[in-house]
Amino acid sequence: MVESPLEKNEVQITSQHRIAVDKLNFALMNRYEKKISRGKNAEGSGEFAYNKQNASYFGNLRALGKRLIEKEFLENLSEQDLNQVEDLKEAINKAIVHIDKVAKEVSDHLTEHITVDLGEFSKGRGRKKSTEDEEEATDEVDAD
Questions:
Q1: I want to staple 27 with a disulfide (CB 3.0 to 4.6 A). Which of 9, 20, 54, 104 is the partner?
Q2: What is the helix, strand, coil percentage profile of the chain, to 5?
Q3: Kind of pairing, strands 44-50 and 2-3?
Q4: Cα(61)–Cα(49) distance, rounded to whole angstroms?
Q5: What gap in Å lies between CA 25 and CA 19, rounded to an integer?
């Protein structure tokens, strides 16, 4: 079994996938076995390469990672497991919509009903004392 060497812009991610990086894209390449002759039923040569022509291109690593996880994860599941995963995805999406709705309602309620008074600010640190506070401080000093 002969494997094609990594090029300087490639990273081996799994035994079946490599990522090639250029200025604009991240390309996810799949491993395949080279054939001795042409045709669907042609015999394999025992040499493996990564298909750049049919690579999937992504603008960022997050999107590439998501696709890779889906591909690796979902390829190895049974039909029943796939149905359960779809049900789980649907439940998660419903939960996200509900959470967003509640968060907006809470934010709207807070904005409508709560006012935060930060007081007056001086050039120095902290809040500026009100005149009543200054009078009380003066009275305390006079009493001593």
A1: 20
A2: 45, 25, 35
A3: parallel
A4: 22
A5: 10
